[in-house]
Amino acid sequence: MSDFEPDILTFCCNWCSYAGADLAGVSRLQYPTNSRVIRVMCSSRVEPIHILEALKEGTDGILVTGCHIGDCHYIEGNIHTDERMKEIVDALEHLGLRDRLHLEWVSAAEGKKFQETITDFVEKIRALGPNPLKNNKKEE
Amino acid sequence: MTTPRSNIYQTNVYRKSSDDIWNCLTCGLCYDGCPQGVDYPEFVKEEREGKQQGDLVHKGVFTLLSDLMADLKESKTNLAESGNNDSKIGYYPGCLDFHDMFFDLDVDFKSIADSSMKLLEKMDMSAKMLQLKCCGHDQLWQGDTETFEKLKEQNTKLIKESGIETLVTSCAECYRTLSMDYDLPCEVVHISQLLKNADLGIDSNTDVTCHDACRLGRHMGEYDAPREALSSAGATVTEMAHSKNESWCCGVSTMMSCNDRSKALRKARLDEAKDTEAKVLITSCPKCLAHLNCMKTEQESVENYEFDIKDLTVFLAEQLGGK
User: Fold this and answer.
1) Quick one: which of A47, A86, B57, B283 could link to B288 by a disulfide (CB 3.0–4.6 Å)?
2) Are B97 and B132 in contact (CB under 8 A)?
3) ipTM for the predicted complex
4) How is residue A130 annotated by DSSP?
5) Where are the domains of chain B?
6) Could you say which of A48, A88, A136 has the minimum Cβ distance to residue B71?
7) Nearest C-alpha of chain A: how many angstroms from B265?
8) CATH 3.40.50 fits domain B207-320
9) Is there a common fold for B57-195 and B207-320?
């Protein structure tokens, strides 16, 4: 499937990863344009329902990024994120969508890491193929 | 909020639909007391069909999960594959493994499946663990018949392929849905109905009280099986102030309306259980188990509920111990 361009949803926390994405931008680092960024105040704002809903609507991959553990602006927000992501991974495993979610810690200084994360994830999803739920929609 | 009577009247005479259809817990307490035998839950079910859902608990994450399951071919509610694969008896765990997925409830739901398998084995009825999808109970009662039909179709196909003759479930909701809303070629039984005649060889000597799940009790008319299963295992059953057909609902049977009103109901139910001075509160539905336990944890700082809340199968399997 050469013409498949994955739709990626990236959740960035306001304090670290979003700034990291900014840094990647001002440093003119090149990365694929498949991802759409949603800024949240903290990565722990991302709920299981957001991820499931996104998958239901046909998103091919979801990337959740936040501050490194210990660096959270809200002290322990990302610890909650970590716990929560483990739970949602369980759920996705049952659905057979395990590989479509990825959690990464990106700090404000890591523009390069942001670029690499997005590039790697897009390539991974590209190899994986489209979200099966997207196909269902088209068939209908 | 209006009464069931005025709700039916408004709908049938004036074709007015009110939000009240979403307030109903569909527990069936009303039709049990109705001299005319009006089946209000069934009316509510039909009224809800295709409408915008009311207030789903946990923002509808469980509903969404089952929705996705209906659309994804390879997804299953898969607990570890176990059991006797050539058996004519199939055990359906339902959505047990999803209940505690997103929360820190101090309940091991998967142990219900393990206990059920263990008990079935003990009764010389070693079963095959069926790898099915969600039964679709919540979808049906939330008015999403489209998803329900999808799940029904896929599950029916899988059950037919498995070639079983008896389908055992440990969940009151699955039992109701599979026997009343599905059209299956095999017999569907709730595990308590098998346990009531079984001689497990245990003498537990514990004071227990029994919470009737609305799906097993009023919907299916099975009040005695869990009690007989308990008393044949040597436990003393003390009834709560409201029991059997008058039993109060846990309030969240369709994963809807977990609000101040249904919380008050659960609190009152726990108080009743406390009054019986029983050591264990037994339920036969994982949803009652989840929601009563949730309430118990929530009340920990103000109320001291000394009893445990357990599923029937877990309770019996624990007594069985290493036997």
Assistant:
1) B283
2) no
3) 0.81
4) S
5) 57-195, 207-320
6) A136
7) 27
8) yes
9) yes
